[in-house]
Design brief:
Layout: E1 2-5, E2 8-11, E3 40-47, E4 51-57, E5 61-66, E6 72-78, E7 84-89, E8 95-100, E9 104-109, E10 115-118, E11 126-131, E12 138-142, E13 146-151, E14 156-162, H1 166-169, E15 181-186, E16 192-197, E17 201-206, E18 211-217, E19 221-226, E20 232-237, E21 242-246, H2 254-263, H3 268-272, H4 278-284
Antiparallel strand pairs: 1-2, 3-4, 4-5, 5-6, 7-8, 8-9, 9-10, 11-12, 12-13, 13-14, 15-16, 16-17, 17-18, 19-20, 20-21
């Protein structure tokens, strides 16, 4: 396979294989969690000492399960009026994002299970969300042909990544079709996001440039995620294929490494209180790359 960068084809940049692995390890059912009234679309584990799971469903709710107590239902989260498509938890487990029908992006406190912010900016159903590895950024993907990158602490939209023009995305019934963005995922360094859309393309975006730096054909793309070390990208398709893509890694600058480390332990509000020059603050809160 080939990917293009800046209009130039890069040979041997990617490869993909169809995943077909026989199941050889015995597995047994731990819990059968009951309570949702419709299709369950997404799960998110809470990454702390508590062995908990959040499930998101088309029944418009999310549910918090305590797996240490044999899957006890701890909380039902009501805030959506339409399907909940996806949910994600920050690395420090302090915040939950949920996205769904009706242009909805909600941020929840994991301490109180209450909605703390409703982010507005999408023009269609929002179907995918993910936090960066340091928790400082949130990306959401929508049927409105856009990925939006947010500051989850302030609710500010930092950038919109458009997949095609609005006119090109409209079909004869004046509804979005070919530009549907199905999924979004951050690279481990938080400097790139990948997206898959119904226009048949996989894109890797550079957040600094706010444009795709790599593009490849991907028919029926539905989901995507980077490996922990960041050199492999996995994509899933609606026709049952899992494809793996090798990604050339560029070492982050020392400034990027320092920002990433700092933002793992400091919120945007804490950064803005630091007695440092304004330009450095803007870099640390991702207003400048």
């Amino acid at each position: 396979k080939t990917l293009s960068r800046g209009g130039t084809e890069l040979l041997n940049f990617t490869r993909h294989v169809v995943l077909n692995i026989p199941i050889s390890v015995a597995a047994h059912l731990l819990f059968n969690l009951k309570g949702h009234q419709s299709v369950v679309r997404c799960f998110a584990f809470i990454a702390n000492e508590n062995f908990m799971l959040i499930s998101a469903s088309r029944d418009t709710t999310m549910r918090v399960w305590d797996l240490k107590q044999d899957g006890k239902l701890l909380q039902t989260l009501n805030g959506h009026n339409q399907w909940v498509y996806c949910c994600a938890v920050t690395p420090d487990s302090s915040m939950l994002c949920s996205v769904g029908g009706g242009k909805t992006v909600l941020l929840w406190s994991m301490a109180s299970y209450k909605v703390i912010q409703k982010l507005e900016g999408h023009g269609g159903d929002v179907v995918s969300c993910e936090f960066s590895s340091n928790g400082a950024l949130l990306a959401t993907a929508s049927y409105d042909t856009h990925v939006i990158v947010w500051d989850p602490y302030t609710g500010e939209s930092l950038m919109k990544l458009r997949h095609c023009t609005t006119f090109a995305a409209l079909d004869v019934n004046d509804v979005f079709s070919t530009g549907f963005v199905r999924a979004v995922s951050f690279s481990q360094d938080g400097l790139n996001v990948t997206s898959v859309a119904d226009d048949g393309l996989l894109r890797i975006w550079c957040l600094d440039l706010q444009r795709p730096i790599y593009v490849a054909p991907l028919t029926n793309g539905l989901c995507c995620t980077f490996s922990p070390h960041g050199s492999v990208l996995a994509t899933g398709t609606r026709d049952g294929h899992v494809k793996f893509w090798t990604i050339s890694r560029v070492l982050p600058t020392l400034q990027d490494v320092c920002r990433n480390a700092l933002r793992r332990v400091m919120t945007t509000h804490q950064v803005m209180l630091l007695p440092i020059p304004k330009k450095i603050k803007e870099f640390l809160v991702y207003k400048k790359f």
